[in-house]
Amino acid sequence: MNHALEGILVIELGTVLTAPLAGMMLADLGARVIKVEHPSGGDPFRRHAGKLYSPHFASFNRNKESIQLDLQGEAGKADLLALLARADVLLENYRPGVMARLGLTEEALKEINPRLVWCSITGFGAEGPYRDRPCYDAVALGLSGLASIMLDPAQPAMTGPTISDNVTGMYACYGILGALMGRARTGNGARVEVNMLEASIAFSPEGFAQYTRLGAVPGPQTRVAISQSHAFPCADGRLVAVHLSSVEKFWQAFVAVIERPDLLEDTRFLSPELRTRNYALLNREAAHTFLSRTRDEWCERLAQSDVPFSPVYSVPEVMDDPQVRQARTFYEIDHPEHGKMVGIHRPVTIDGARGPTTRPAPLLGEHGAAIRTEFGLA
């Protein structure tokens, strides 16, 4: 089962993040993924740190093969069609119309391979007033409303990891897997379309439910107030996070840990509803207390009282955490040209195993000669 997609051939025309992430997820499940890259430097993500092998590229392209094809030329298109004739999945994230200009229409692909599952990832979809606009993570975050529930309007600053890019790639993988299951039943391929705008909207449905059912427009603190999520600076300048939820025992234990029994009698905080309404006030009350001890001291006290908590780790601290080490979340491999590389295992085990042997992201065109021989390309 860890090679669940063994025998599935994926041709990836993916660049940067959305399609490469979807392709990597399929590869992690055992599919063979051949990444088609332009001869003039390949996937732009390669160049983020020079030498055509940036950490960004390596993070989203493990377990793949690479071949260079110039799809603007007839020879390159012929080679691609030869690959697609034997493929199970075509994965691409071009803007609408690019595939058609290359002569790769749905009808043409169906003619050469009616079993092909073609997944197209775009910014806004194949139709509509924004179809031809460029789309990246910040654009989709803004248009989908996600940014409005993450940014402080008084001091707006984009922070954190890519979200729209990542969730779009995950939804693409989900759509491909569904189409492959459908093909196993019907024998027919399918066209799967995913766009960053709708994927980002779907990723956070509760805000739209709040608005359409209650008339409430969510803001940056709406969800954290309801869930009673807090982050507090400690005496040593490090942070601790707690999540008190609506379970009364967590609130009572938290108050005991910080030795503030007065909060139990405070009329502003007598119920979950009141604590949600007065979230900012409660945060300020507790924050003052957290400055009295170091993060490690607070973590020990919170753990002893079964309060949902976590230190707010830096990236190096995550890698050194005993739970993460026990799970063997990270792996190391030796790359013949780039030395020791650290990667993250797929976060899913099947029958207790991580999956197929992990191979590093390919060098540009690394497998071109072998692929040409195997598929009889020019």
From TrEMBL:
The entry's keywords: Transferase
Pfam family, one: CoA_transf_3
Source organism (scientific name): Massilia niabensis
Domain of life per record: Bacteria
InterPro entries: CoA-transferase_III_domain (IPR050483), CoA-Trfase_fam_III (IPR003673), CoA-Trfase_III_dom3_sf (IPR044855), CoA-Trfase_III_dom_1_sf (IPR023606)
Protein's name in the database: CaiB/BaiF CoA transferase family protein
Record-linked SUPFAM superfamilies: CoA-transferase family III (CaiB/BaiF)
Entry GO MF terms: transferase activity
